[in-house]
Design brief:
GO terms for molecular function: 4-(cytidine 5'-diphospho)-2-C-methyl-D-erythritol kinase activity; ATP binding. With 283 residues, this protein is α+β, with helices and mostly antiparallel strands. Helix content is 34%, strand content 30%. Strands 1, 2, 3, 4, 5, 6 and 8 form a seven-stranded mixed sheet that branches. It has a four-stranded antiparallel sheet with strand order 9-10-7-11, covered by helices on one side. Helix 1 links the parallel strand 3 and strand 4. It binds cytidine-5'-monophosphate.
Length: 283
Amino acid sequence: MEIIEKAPAKINLGLDALYKREDGYHELEMVMASVDLADRLSFEATKENKIVIETDSSFLPLDRRNHVYQAAELLKREYHLKQGVKIQIQKNIPVAAGLAGGSSDCAATLRGLNRLWNLGLSLEELANLGGRIGSDVPYCIQGGTAFVTGRGEKIETLPPMPQCWVVLVKPRMSVSTGSIFGSLSFNSIQHPDIEGLKDAVTRNDYHLMATKVGNALESVTIKRHPVIQQIKDRMMKYGADAALMSGSGPTVFALCEKKSRAQRIYNGLKGFCEEVYIVRTLK
Ligand code: C5P
């Protein structure tokens, strides 16, 4: 039997850091939304007690460094399972991009193996397990539009974000989330209006939402990689309603009500960066 799970990318419409906690993590307030750019994972039972990962991507490790491997290992350990599994990852989401590709693959693995091995775990139980692997994994278990707080484990489902076109632009470099959080200074932080953003999303007010998007990590990553500011400026010049870095970066997204604007941004940025995508928001 083969089980298939899709693992959608997310964007941060809002990301605020409130303070650094004693455990070293930051207390966050985020508004996240899934978009229709997804990896595809398949899970197949095997006789040998081993976790085997295959992928078409040259960027992914196939061993314990991969969060997919860690998810399978965690379930096997917790539930004393002796089954083997072959996991194939068809990678479409850019790696180390701020789009939660690795976390979404990890979440898809927890959902997929829950089905393959008939574990009967609830989404909440899967989210708790996922939180032991990475802060974005609990949100990725359910995806959609959500208000996410704590370290990433407290999730309040929101109505789907207003429908629009999203242009994703991933500059060449990769960014380490830990290192960006490490450089965040609470003396110079710019806090976005997360309450206002949440309200705009809840009221399905696209234009208000476009004025409220914001990310407290953006200026930290831009300092290191000024190209992010250049991408934002170009997006706005080509007619984006809003342009923002996602997560700790480096991917920048533009929001557009009209498809023709999204196409213009796509055309304008395609020569500037290699990885450019036009996607839709997910319901
Ligand atoms: O949880 P995860 O391993 O994905 O996080 C990567 C790094 O990002 C952490 O080691 C930490 O430095 C930083 N982080 C943080 N506060 C959070 C989430 C992540 O400081 N809420």
